[in-house]
Amino acid sequence: MLSLLTIKNFALIESLEQAFDEGFTIITGETGAGKSILLGALGLLQGKRADLASLKNKEEKCIVEGHFNLVNYNLEEVFDSLSVDYEEITIIRREILPSGKSRAFVNDSPVNLSDLQVLSSYLIDIHSQHQTGELSDENYQLQIIDIIADNHSLLEEYSTTLKEYKQRVNELADYIELQSSLVKEQDYNNFLLQELEEANLTSLNQVVLEQEYEKLNNVEHVRESFTHASSLFTEEQVGVISNLREIRTLLQKISGLDAEYKELTDRVISVDIEVSDIANDLESLIESVISDPEQMTLINERLQLLYALQKKHQVSTVEELLKIEEELSSKVFKANSLEEQIEKAQKDIKRLEDRLSVLANNISTARKDVIPSLQKQLIDILSLVGMPASRFRFKFIEAAHFLSNGKDQIQLMFSANKGSDFGLLKKVASGGEMSRIMLAIKSVLAVYSNLPTIIFDEIDTGVSGEVADKMGNIMRDMSSKMQVFAITHLPQIACKGNTHFKVFKSEDKGGTISQLVELKDDKRVNEIAQMLSGADISESAILHAKELLQK
Fold first, then answer.
1. What is the CA radius of gyration of the chain?
2. Contact 503, 514 (CB under 8 A)
3. Cβ of 136: how many Cβ atoms within 10 Å?
4. Can you give the residue ranges of the RecF/RecN/SMC N-terminal domain (predicted)?
5. Which residues are registered as beta bridge partners of 485?
6. Does residue 309 register a pLDDT over 90?
7. What integer pLDDT is reported at residue 247 of this predicted model?
8. What does the alpha-carbon distance between residue 113 and residue 45 come to, in Å, rounded to a whole number?
């Protein structure tokens, strides 16, 4: 329950700190006094959007803080699921900075607004006037039935399964689209891959092949060059070797005369040996250089194939061709393996569809099982508020596909008078009837839900007199199970509260401000008397107010 509310620098409120008790709390005040400001502040604690215009003083930050007593509400799992520390007295705080930035905290730990919205839904329900229109919404109607049917666990499993189902359906669609794209290229990719594989690129060394081809293509020129060079080395009279031998002989004769001569002679001897070796190597090379037209043709064919592949794929090296071969192999493999992935996705989808169908059927059965009890409870409550002939009919229609909360589509039919035909609730119920129906629903939900606090913002719109009195009794009965606030203009309801607060505006040097004050004893009598008779309070109004408070 809401045990303390603190508001600073919000709209017309400079500073407010108010403690609240359990039971039934009444809030009254003139139109425009600031009741909506209180609701706006509480809305911030529910995670609603913050507005810089809400700051009374634009130079200071706005703070709204609520203390919630959560003893015996078993909300630890909710806090755990949101990774928020649980405290029996949980403090929610919203801050709006002058920059416009908004921050939210739960027990002094920062939280995002989506988590705050989830958490606050377990703490407080603010029923504003426009929410009566939610009764016409099919999803809201199903939410009511699900709370009474205790479908929470089933819906959680259904939601998780539906999420997985949609994910697999999307994956299947992607697989099929990819397969369609790859199939168009499959034959061509297979041809290109086969062509590259047959070339056996891993065994090719382009540089070596090109060198070998050049050798074979120039055999005669090479042989001729080697032969001529060899003759220059070995001719008897003028060959290099013959001349070196003569030089060697001449120098050997004088080498003993001087160390320098000896060194020069040794160098000539070394050259003579090296030249002889070169001449021998030339002779060997001459013998090895032979014409091989078949080998040259084979190498040329290999090179021409390589050049053709490089030109086709617009690359210049074997390494690049090998990379293309790898990519083509991957595409072909993916195309071949997609069929297996598609088949697996289809099996998963079928399995998930079967599970969803079972869950949706269980959810629907549970809903239908509680309808008779819900109808009776609503009719019993509406009988107390001047609608004794009310009748409801819940028409379930199975949807063709899985919805977010099962496969049920619902039409809530209503008849307010004996003998009148059923019609859609949103079309046949008046504003006053909708308010009473909403109160009846909230009253029923109070029995089944574990909600700590509910706030009714002028749910009595469109009713008066005895009906208002009965509505007040219903809200007072609800307050035995939860903390109930009622913002009202009707004295018949205002007199039912355990505590009574008044919102009013006053002026000071800084301008107009809104304030909240608890009314007790004569002040409360006067407030209800004023609600009965207007600004000029009569003695009879005072007596009537006292009678109402004593009921």
1. 48
2. yes
3. 15
4. 2-508
5. 25, 455
6. no
7. 82
8. 9
Question: Mean per-residue pLDDT for 185-196?
Answer: 68
The DSSP result for 305-318, as a single string, is HHHHHHHHHT--SH
* CB-based contacts of 304, cutoff 8 Å, min separation 6: none
Residues 6+ apart with CB under 8 A from 529: 537, 538, 541, 542, 544, 545
Please give the single-letter amino acid code of residue 117: Q
pLDDT tier at 257, thresholds 50, 70, 90: confident
Distances (CA, A) of 237 to 11, 231, 234, 248: 122, 11, 9, 15
Among 181, 193, 190, 173, residue whose Cα is nearest residue 341: 173
Backbone angles phi, psi at 431, to 5 degrees: -60, -45
pTM of the predicted model, to two decimals? Answer: 0.67
Question: The tokens 């509910």 sit on which residue?
Answer: 454
Give the orientation angle of helix 465-478 with respect to helix 318-384, to 10 degrees.
120
Q: Please choose, from the candidates 541, 515, 517, the residue with its C-alpha nearest in 3D space to the C-alpha of residue 530.
A: 541
CATH fold label, 1-123+451-519: Rossmann fold (3.40.50)
The residues that bridge with 67 in the sheet, in sequence order, are 4, 91
In whole angstroms, give the CA distance from residue 272 to residue 247: 10
Is 546 in contact with 525 (CB distance < 8 Å)?
yes
Q: Residue 155 corresponds to which tokens in the numbers above?
A: 């819906």
Our measurement of the distance from residue 432's CA atom to the centroid of its chain's CA atoms, rounded to an integer in Å, reads 41
SS3 label, residue 30? coil
Q: Give the separation between CA 373 and CA 380, rounded to whole angstroms.
A: 11
Are the beta carbons of 316 and 310 closer than 8 angstroms? Answer: yes
**Identity of residue 211:** Q
* Choice between 292 and 226, residue whose per-residue pLDDT is larger: 226
- Comparing CA positions, the residue from 104, 72, 69, 105 lying closest to residue 87 is 69
Among all chains, which residue has been given the structure tokens 């229609």?
A: 397
Asked whether the beta carbons of 29 and 501 are under 8 A apart, the reply is no
Average pLDDT over residues 244-261: 84
Every domain of the chain and the residues it spans: 1-123+451-519, 180-336, 522-551
Q: How many CA atoms lie less than 13 Å away from 88 in the CB half-sphere?
A: 2
Task: Give the up-direction half-sphere exposure of residue 219: CA atoms within 13 A in the CB hemisphere.
Answer: 13
- Residue written as token pair 């079972």: 358
Buried b (16+ CB within 10 A) or exposed e, 179-201: beebeeeeeebeebbebbeebeb
| Angle of helix 219-234 versus helix 206-217 axis, rounded to 10 | 70
Determine the residue type at 433: E
Question: Under the phi-then-psi rule, with left for phi > 0, alpha for psi from -120 to 50, and beta for the rest, what region is 411?
Answer: beta
Using one digit for the tens of pLDDT, what is the confidence trace for 58-113? 888 999 999 999 998 889 999 999 999 999 999 999 999 988 899 999 999 999 99
Residue 499's DSSP bridge partners are 25
Contact 35, 27 (CB under 8 A): yes
Distance CA 464, CA 396 (A): 35
Q: What is the DSSP letter of 178?
A: H
